[in-house]
Amino acid sequence: MVTPDNRVGVVFNGAIYNYRELRRSLSAFDFITQTDTEVLLHGYRQWGIDNLVRRLRGMFAFALWDDAARRLYLVRDRLGVKPLVYVIRGGVLAFASTVRALVTSGFTDGVDPEAVLSFLNDGFVPDSLSIYRGVVKVPAGSIVEVPLASSVLEGKVTTRKYWTQPSATSPISFADAVETTRVKLLDAVKVRLHADVPVGALLSGGIDSSLVCWAAQELGASIQAYTIATPGDPWDEAAEAMDTAKRLSLKHSVVEMSDSDLPEVEDLLSAYGEPFACPSALGMLRVSRAISQFSPAKVLLTGDGGDDVFLGYPRHRHLWLASNLAEHVPAVPTMWRRIHSGVPRFGPLRRAGALLDYTTWGLKGYLGHADVLTPQELGSEPESGRTVLTDALRHEFRTRFMSEYLVKVDGATMHHGLEARSPFLDHELWEFASTIPFGVRLHHGQLKAILRELVRTKIGRAVGRRPKRGFGVPVQRWLAGRWRPWAQELLTDSILCKEGWVPASLSPRLTAPLKGTLAPAYQWYAVVLESWLRYTRKDATRRCASR
Q1: Side-by-side strand order, sheet with 135-137
Q2: Are the beta carbons of 174 and 450 closer than 8 angstroms?
């Protein structure tokens, strides 16, 4: 969209939830549409780019061109829900929502070996890298400013942050934290229910999505809930989700997956521009496809983000215990450094050793470096154990949260023409939760204590006691079972091995017979990467043939 005088233009992906409020503040301008996109144009003219983005409440990635200033601005939302990538080549800058768009347009170079190594270690390419050399991902909460003259770069491209996540510093009682969370969650759900298309919800058997569905019902919305089921598998959550749906009187549909289905890797590859091995992405793709085919819903509410900011993973409790131990028993790190290398790591000693690593070396210990680095490399910072939970949360936000959790949902839903909206990713709710002290978020040592208390009082005590649930797909179990022949055939004479993407010593292990019931994670990662390499080369051949 461009302004009537063609002086300012914007390319926009996402949703601005407070655009009606912003529009009222821009009454001096003549609007010709009812869209949130036009608010970006007139908001920029009124406030400038920095003051505009600070006012936005939503998920967004946009490129805004100011013709008079000869400036291009690339902007990504605070938490990085919406993707935005760019590449500079031959004095030209190209930007897009996906890496594949840049590939198709011929702006990328070869595959980045560092990104491949990172993928084989984690199952995703981090936000700091791209699978192709030269491609840059706009950081979350940032503005990239690009000076141009006659469509050619002139001057230095700069990146600046407009938002930083706050720290846990505000004193608040548990009761007040629960009540304020209730109010802010209802508000976050309310603004996401505004849509000109039907709204549905993804419902697992756990806390976060149950609360989102409760809030929607509380606000009077009539929504359909959807659940992925894996019948017969220990991870199956359909029964718990059905119980929640019954308690809330929700319309509910269950989409089944089983190991009798070969993995829909083609769908996985076409939905994500980079290799992506998150197992639950298969479930997200399946349920997104079913909704797009058989349901009128085009917007889906999800529970993503609740675990990350309200502390719902077991590791959060362990890190909190380590920080308390470092704070109140300062002699522990000194003792542990002396005996660390001589203590075996198996059985109960493994978990105790990990706790002491976190206490002594902080983030380095948490990332598993305590057994591979020398004491000199690890260092002996006395404060590291005391801040280990804060440091780990920042690390997770920059890596797995942005590059796996958010990518999974946005990629799967967008691939099937749907829009996912998560109230827990509302920046106002996120900022509030981030300032709550860890001891309140982990009240009495309970994971996600604030949200569990809300569920207990609003939905039912039994629901509040449920362990963490998600859209889990047991690919490692299935890869060791009925998927095994398919995977062995794929990895035999593989591109990965022939071109040296994996070490020669690892090649035989990719197709070796398994002794247990779970395939190692690296085998699933190798399957996905091999499939991705084959897919991209076929795609490149098709493009060449079409030209």
Answers
A1: 92-96, 85-89, 135-137
A2: yes
Residue of 254, 270, 243 whose CA lies nearest to 202: 254
pTM (predicted TM-score):
0.92
Listing from the earlier edge strand, what are the strands of the sheet with 251-256?
251-256, 224-229, 199-202, 299-301, 419-421
* Rounded Cα–Cα distance for residues 471 and 312 (Å): 15
Q: Retrieve residue 445's tokens.
A: 């040592």
Q: In this structure, how many other beta carbons lie within 10 angstroms of the beta carbon of residue 260?
A: 8
Count of residues making up the chain? 547
Per-residue pLDDT tens digits for 412-465: 999 999 999 999 999 999 999 999 999 999 999 999 999 999 999 999 999 998
pLDDT digits (tens, 9 = 90+) for 448-459: 999 999 999 999
Name the token pair of 288: 């997104």
Beta strand pairing status for 199-202 and 224-229? parallel
Residues in a beta bridge with 10: 64
Rg (alpha carbons) of the chain, rounded to whole number: 24
**Which long-range CB contacts under 8 A does 455-462 form with residues at least 24 apart?**
455/207, 455/210, 455/211, 455/214, 458/182, 458/211, 458/214, 458/218, 459/210, 459/211, 459/214, 459/244, 459/247, 459/248, 460/247, 462/243
Segment (H or E) for 494: none
Token representation of residue 2: 């461009």
Q: Higher model confidence: residue 47 or residue 505?
A: 47
Coil/strand/helix, residue 308:
helix
List the beta bridge partners of residue 255.
228
Q: Considering only the C-alpha atoms of the chain, give the largest distance between any 2 of them, rounded to a whole number of Å.
A: 74
The answer to whether the beta carbons of residues 170 and 436 sit under 8 Å apart is yes
Across 412-496, where does the E strand assignment appear?
Answer: 419-421
Query: Which residues have C-beta within 8 Å of that of residue 151, sequence separation ≥ 6?
Result: 92
Torsion of CA 174, 177, 182, 184, to 10 degrees: -170
Contact present, 494 and 530 (Cβ < 8 Å): yes
Q: Is the dihedral of CA 185, 190, 191, 196 positive or negative?
A: positive
